[in-house]
Structures are given as structure tokens and as C-alpha cells.
Amino acid sequence: MSFKNGFYWGNSVSSMQTEGAWNEGGKGKSVYDIREATENSSDWKVATDSYHRYKEDFDHMKELGMNMYRFQISWSRVNPDGDGEWNEGGIAFYDRFIDDLIARGIEPMICLYHFDMPLNLAEKYNGFLSKDVVDHFKDYGIEMVKRFGHKVKHWITFNEQNVFNIPSEGFKAAGYMTGDKTTEEMIQIQHNAMMAHTYIANYIHEQTDCKISGMLAHQEVYPATSHPRDIFLARELDEFLNNNLLEAFVYGKYLDSYMAFIKRHNLNVSIEEDELKELSKLRSDYLTFSYYASLVLDHTKVPEEASPFEYLDYGKINNSYLKATEWNWQIDPLGFRNVLNKIYTRYRLPVFPIENGIGVIEEWDGKNMIEDDYRIAYHRNHIQAMKDAAEIDGVDILGYLGWGLIDILSSQGDMRKRYGVVYVNRENHDLKDLAITPKKSYAWLQQVIASNGENL
Question: Is position 308 within any domain?
Fold first, then answer.
């Protein structure tokens, strides 16, 4: 089989992992611009220099046959302080950027926030812990929709919004600079982010013909055994990290179990009646998510007093049935099919995986093509799982966007971790010439897209 007509094939990235030009064109500083390089990570000042080189990337995407590109607007490029004047130079850059995509037959999808909080807002308000930042994000998002909504019809607010409920990642992602990182603060950040999403989504549905989705880093977690406690904790984690936000995206309300957790622990979280009224209007046009690997949870390693948000910090173990990447991300195409089914069956909205891929350490000798058969195998197996979900299970799937299919800095700034079917010639501490060259997987993906998924 092939996928339905109009299926989206494309690439997803963030601004800080691609653009560079950290101090050009009137851009203000983000929290990433003050992070220094380490032994196994670069700083963020150049990335892959797509600010200057993006047309070459677009040409490769067109040659691949892609018809969608999910990219991120850098908040501090269009509003340097996050709460001040608009930078018309930064807005003009994205205007050209969008036009150059459309000219190549590639439909843009805009993400408004990928954890790169304007530094001013992080320092002044402690990021999304403050409702002042929610107001500024609302102003920013609505302004971007006004500027670009006539030609960009697909929007997401936050990359992997449930990351705000993962203690090891969420505070940093929110622009949080100082404090004790309490559960109370974490839930406040999550609620504030949900309200920020809500204001933009409701504006889009009330004032435009655009479409918008909430997005998760879907946590597919298996119980380690058939022990009832393993099954209970895995189910509870699924509810708190996945379904709580999905319920809000689709039905405009949090799960009762989530609200009961806040009440039972006497958490002083500011959730106002007028906010819940606005949240009740929230709807999504489809549901987007990232998926890379599955996880296993062992209840014997989880302390009794741990909250569901902490279960993986204590109880994550390896799955002996699966192979793993160099970063110990366990490769599980069937888990991908599970996620597609679970979201569609529960919420009856089209599903759209907008991040998927395999990060691998690769080196190029400067002349011979990189033979990345492991990447071909990864994508082939995940696309086949997606086909099975559509053909056998009846899941309505809108498209498939790979992550960083032209090499970019990893989320930790590590250029060694490469996802691309196109190699970018730079290392963590040596920018080299930043030239790009296709890998073996490039031609394979090209034939997959040309056949709309039939020829794997």
C-alpha cells in the first residue's frame, strides 16, 4: 500500500539547532546563547548556519520530494527582549524564509517555542513560572499568526509540551533560572504553558482558517513484568505525562486524577476559574507527537513517596528484547504503532508524527558516501509500522516528519549525534566548511517519498 493522497513527508528542526547568527539581524539573546561549549557539545552561536544557508537545505528537501517543513520561529529574533518592540528585520527574515519554502512546493509548519526562552524573560520572570511570561507569549504568538497566518496554515505552540512535567528537563525548557525546582513549581509551569497554548489556539480557531495542534514527546512505557504494581505505575505515568495534556488539547480539561493529585498534596498551584473557562474552549485539529524509542518501568526501584513525574528517574530499566542506539535509546517500531493506535482510538482525531529518527555517531572521510544502512533500517521499520497502523488498524495519519534529516546540533548541542540523511561537515569544536553532502539513506528516502510510502 501507499499512504493517502496529500500525505505529508518532511523534516522537523528547531531554530537554535540550525540557524546560528546569534547576534545578527537585530536578534536578542536567548537562554541558549549564554551556554558554553563542553567536551562533547558545541556552543549555539553558529549551529549549521541555516540563517545564511537555508536555501541549499530547501533545495535538498525539494529534491527529496518533501512537501512539508516544520521549523521554529526564534522568539528573541522577532522580539529581542520577549516583552518589547518587534524586530522587523527578524520578521522579514522569516517572511523570506516562508516564501522560499512555498516557492519550492514545501508547506511550512511553524512551531513557536522550542525551549529557547528570551534571556530577558528568563532573568526577569524566571521563565514560564510567571504568568507575565504567559501574557508575553500570547502577544508573541498572536502577532506571528497575524504576520504569517495568510500563508502558513499549520501551527504548533510548544515543542514536546509534556517535557514541562519531566523534572530533569522541564525547568530548563521553561527558562527557569533560579529556585528549588519543586513539584509545585513544575506543575505551575505546566499549567502556565497550557494556558499560553490555549490563548493562541483559541485565537487561531476564532479568527483564522489555520489549524493548530498540541504536541507531546509521547512516553511509551512498558511495565517490567506482569506484577500489578508495574502495570499500575506504567498506567499512572501514561495518564500524567501523556493523556493529561491530550485531554486538555482535545476536550479542554485536565484529568480528574491530575487535579486530585494537586489537591491531595496541598500544592499551591494558581489555576484560576477564568483560566479554566478559557481552557474549556480549547480544541485541536489533529494531534502531533515525537517518537524515538520506548521505555520500561520497574516498580521495585521506585520509592513509595515518588510522584508519577519521577517514576522514570528511579525505575527506568533496559528492555532486553530490543536493540539500542549509542545513546541507549531502544529501537521499537511496534511501540510506534502502539502510540499511533492509542492516540487515535482514544481521541478520534487524525494523528501526525512530526519527529522520528535515529541519532548516530558518524564521520565522513571527505570523499566516500556514508553507508548508513542502520538509518535506512530504522526509518523503513518505523514507516512500515505506520503503514500497518493505517492499513490494518484504520488509524488516520496525516504525515511523517523526520527529525533533523539534514544534520543539526543535537538537543544537547552535540554534533556527534547525527539524524540526517544529509551530512553537514562540522564537528563540535571545528566548524570546517559546513558543506552538505547526501548519505546513502538520501536516495532511499527519495524513492520512499516518490512512491508515497509504497516502495520501502
Answer: no
